[in-house]
Amino acid sequence: MLDTVRKDHLEPYGYERSTTPALSRFAEEATVFESAVAPAPWTLPVHASLFTGLYPSEHGADQGSPYLDDATTLASSLSAAGYDTACYSSNAWITPYTSLTDGFDRQDSFFEVLPGDVLSGPLASAWQAVNDNAYLRELASSIVHIGAKAHAKLASGEGADSKTPSVIDRTKSFIDDSDSDEGWFGFVNLMDAHLPYYPPAEYREEFAPGVDPSEVCQNSKEYNSGAREIDDAEFDDIRGLYDAEIAHMDAELGRLFDWLRETDQWDDTTVVVCADHGELHGEHDLYGHEFALYDQLINVPLLVKHPDLEADRRDDLVELLDLYHTVLDAVGVDPATAVGTTGDDAPVPRDPTRSLLSSEYRAFEGASEPDPGQRAVLEGDETSGDASSDDYAFVEYAQPVIELHHLEEKASEAGIELSNDHRAYSRLRAARSTDAKYVRADRIPDEGYRLDEDPAEESPIDPDDDAVVAATERALARFEDAVGGAWDDPSETDPDDADALAEADEGTQERLRELGYLE
Length: 519
What we know:
Elements (H helix, E strand, L loop, with lengths): L20 H7 L3 E7 L5 H10 L3 H4 L14 H7 L3 E6 L16 E4 L11 H10 L3 H22 L8 H14 L6 E6 L11 H7 L12 H5 L7 H31 L8 E4 L5 E2 L5 E2 L6 H4 E7 L7 E7 L2 H10 L3 H5 L32 H8 L13 E5 L3 H13 L14 E5 L3 E6 L5 E4 L16 H17 L22 H9 L5
Parallel strand pairs: 1-9, 2-3, 2-4
Antiparallel strand pairs: 1-8, 5-8, 6-7, 10-11, 11-12, 12-13
InterPro entries: Alkaline_phosphatase_core_sf, Sulfatase, Sulfatase_N
Protein name: Sulfatase
Organism: Natrinema pellirubrum (strain DSM 15624 / CIP 106293 / JCM 10476 / NCIMB 786 / 157)
């Protein structure tokens, strides 16, 4: 997983700068997907969907409730089937605390300050228990505040160092040590391209010569709140640093791939490379990956190497949550057989209509128990006759509690009062086909786009004026019905009634700060 990586900054997707020579070589052996859509624009819900095959509103993991509850993960099914499983990451959200590492026999977070075992095993459960005890919460708050200050110093500035080499080294050791007759499943998340950007010197000199990372804006909330301006030249410097981070990740990923080739394991290994979401660098007057569902965020890179897939490019629609079923298909594991089908945490069954390796892929009429996305595609709009004419991907973005809190802080410090209709207060859902997108919001105007004619999403189109956009809006409405109704009542997220951190208790806030996601 290439965290926070835009596909248009990768050579296999036409980028002119030489950021990804290793991925370019990989692309010659893999299927490169042009229209892969993430189910959300940020890490936690996307990974939860990848690991469960569920849409965000189904699994419920978001900033208001940053846990994956009552769900059997992909790793749990594979481990139960006899596979060795491991997760190595430098992402603050992928820890036992959020339950995203459930089912991995081995896991480690290489995030700064805290060793991986601090938030593992019994202590991870203890952290959740702290939430229910005011005294413990206060004690924990005072202790982790020290850790937060240490992280702030180490994670931003010249004191920061990439954990990616350690992630790759640990992954190689895991593969070397695996002795399962079934095989192994390794998941890695490389975090370098996430703000702040402090690439190693050799890559900075190549892609951002003369740029001092401490002199450019590295805080998206400052810009998005209106407290800080960024001109074109500064955004060029920011993009240079971003490219340098991508180049470093590519080199480390290439080191893993070369090792697999040298040890004669490459041909027998299914390899999936994707991003969980992208990043905005001034497009739509936004910075980072918050408050929007534009394609720079949700149309992500996806490259897959498997014998059943040709080394080619594909334009058809793909959803990242399809990878849950693809991996199960690749190893021939049935979750129902591996872990059972009873209880609230029963796994999502393997579905060939969602496997990239199946001849039935996206032929949803063959789904035995259609999920909300499949139902929205299948039901169609009989009055317009478009029931099966288009495939759609669906994206969800609940109100971002943490980002909103920091946005309000930056605005307040600058003497700026955010209006009640600021996009940061909105929940967003979208339907996307290869030709169009429709975004529904509960506080700002909806947005429709003809992606085939306007891929940069610069000219919104009303559904009344375009039949393709209208069909996409109807698909979104069907999805909304399937997951419990539209998010169209702004009173539910009124900023006067719901403080940005009211949905997250103090223990949750401090743990997230400890993990480096908060200031």
